[in-house]
Amino acid sequence: MTADTLLERITDYACRPDPYPLYAELREAGRVVRQADGSHLVGTYHEINALLHDPRVSVDPRHGLVRDPGLSEQEQLPFLILDDPAHHRLRTLAMRPFGPPHSPGRVDAMRGQIAELTGELVEGLRDRAEFDLVDDFAYPLPVTVICRLLGVPREDEPLFRRWSDLVVASADVQPGEEAAERARTGRQARVEMGRYLVDLAEQRRGRPGEDMLSAFVNEPDPALRLTREELAETAVLLLIAGHETTVNLITNGVLTLLRHPDQLERLRRDPGLLPGAVEELLRYEPPVHLRRRVPLVDLDIAGSVVPKGEPLILVIASGNRDPGRFRDPDRFDPARVDNQHLGFGGGIHLCYGAPLARIEARAALGALIPRLGAVTLVEDPPPYRRNAMLRGPRHLPIRVGSL
Ligand code: HEM
Fold first, then answer.
1. Binding pocket residue ranges, ligand 1, CB within 6 Å
2. What pLDDT is stored for residue 73 in this prediction?
3. Any idea what the CATH number is for the domain that residue 110 is in?
């Protein structure tokens, strides 16, 4: 098997349970590995980190030589895939009702609610002989939290779940014929979801609640107001990013702990290790595996030139296991020091929701850890979601001794 089929093998669904040997193969093959489809894979920590911080590298898909023909120059995109200065403006406006400096206590103030929700979800598992950690715990928690934060009715989850699935599928890194069709249905879903969220925001114009949609639509300063299209894209991004990743962190966390009973026991005895354990999970089993970029110039990466416009795929989960950066990288060590992982990305697109994700993951694992001693995995590996970019189990069936 040659290196130019690595991307196909990495994205092949059969590899979803354990892509890490392929990532090791990628790092062995070189710092930049060109694929038959013209894309370039980067799997080493220092190169990925440098590219995430490089202003000559774009996230905007419209800079690519191979472009989705349905994507127009005029179309409003979410700030996740915009470059500065447009990215900076939108990220700053989206941050105003979420975090410092304008809303410094916003996320922290949710700790109580998150603890309460976690308690209710754990209570719901009591007396169950078997449950699915995803559907019964790891999914409802972040969905409920981001709904409350944005001001989206929780009961509408079946509606936005369908849109969210289509948008996430369209953003996946999967070579192949269906990519154009996935892009079309993803774009359509984004438009419908955006319309739904803007309608919700409009209902609060002049009658603001405590939520972020209210804050966006009632901004008094015209210079700080989002246009209708910007509001739609920002709200879609926050709703999707706010839950599709955290669910994987919690599920990967439980799976990893059940596979490492010694570390589970260590955390049970010393809950002070929990924040470090969450960071280690973001390194060892990160929810986001791949990110796309496009060089704006011919770019020299560790001696290989990647021509302007050719797709770059940063395998951030491989960077997290790079022995050139982490000692004994395939070992899960909740007490690891010097753990500057790439789980939340880096540079100007560093995850906007990281403080919230950390609070949710610590609350979830903190509530579950004392109860995991009496449970076993029904299936190992469990069934995975199709997505190669946002990787995590679709279900995690768990059998209970006594919870
Ligand atoms: C464990 C949970 C999470 C993980 C692993 C995660 C991971 C990431 C990563 C890797 C990026 C960078 C993408 C890139 O550079 O291309 C990112 C960006 C982003 N994340 Fe998260 N995320 C998580 C939770 C959240 C939450 C809870 C929210 C919202 C409240 C959120 C909102 C965002 C947004 C808006 C961006 C785009 C930032 C920008 O482009 O400036 N994320 N996230």
1. 59, 79-80, 91, 146, 237-238, 241-242, 245-246, 249, 286-288, 291, 343-345, 349, 351-353, 356-357
2. 85
3. 1.10.630.10
